[in-house]
Amino acid sequence: MSIVMALNLRPDWFYRATLCMEQRSKAAVSGAGTVFALNIDGSGFTNLHSFTGSDGDSPLAGLISLGNALYGTAQDGGHSDEGTLYAVNTDGFWFYEPA
């Protein structure tokens, strides 16, 4: 598994969306990506959201933080399997995926 793109730094935490690079070429690899948080000292790893495909797949762009929310895009998955926008609070509450 490979982590791609830079981490989004907020006061005491890093936030990032990731995907498994092998999944792009091997259908047998499961997992559509995650959004995670990590303390700046490397402790406190927290998985905020695991994508299932129907809510997004292959998050590649960096996260945008605004207030207590993180916004991003996934290049695949979603309702039409053509990508989607998503938002998740920094506490892990998933609150947006357009229809």
What's the topology here?
Layout (H helix, E strand, L loop, with lengths): L7 E3 L2 E6 L15 E6 L6 E5 L6 E3 L4 E3 L2 E8 L7 E6 L4 E3 L3
* Count of β-strands: 9
* Computed CA radius of gyration, to the nearest angstrom: 13 Å
Mean pLDDT rating = 78
* Overall outline: globular
Summed up, the domain count is 1
Order of helices and strands: EEEEEEEEE
Largest pleated sheet: 5 strands, antiparallel
Q: What share of the residues lie within helices?
A: under 10%
**How would you name the oligomeric state of the polypeptide chains in this document?**
single chain
Poorly predicted spans: 23-29
Structural class: mainly beta
| % residues in beta strands | 35-45%
Number of helices: 0
| Ends distance | 30 Å
Concise description?
With 99 residues, the chain is mainly beta. The protein contains no helices and nine strands. A hairpin with a 6-residue loop joins strand 3 (34-39) and strand 4.
Structure explained in plain terms:
- The protein has 99 residues and is mainly beta.
- It has one domain (8-96).
- The protein has no helices and 9 strands.
- The strands form 2 sheets. Strands 5, 6, 7, 8 and 9 form a 5-stranded antiparallel sheet that branches. A 4-stranded antiparallel sheet has the order 1-2-3-4, with no helix packed on it.
- A hairpin with a 4-residue loop joins β8 and β9.
- The model is unreliable at 23-29 (pLDDT under 50).
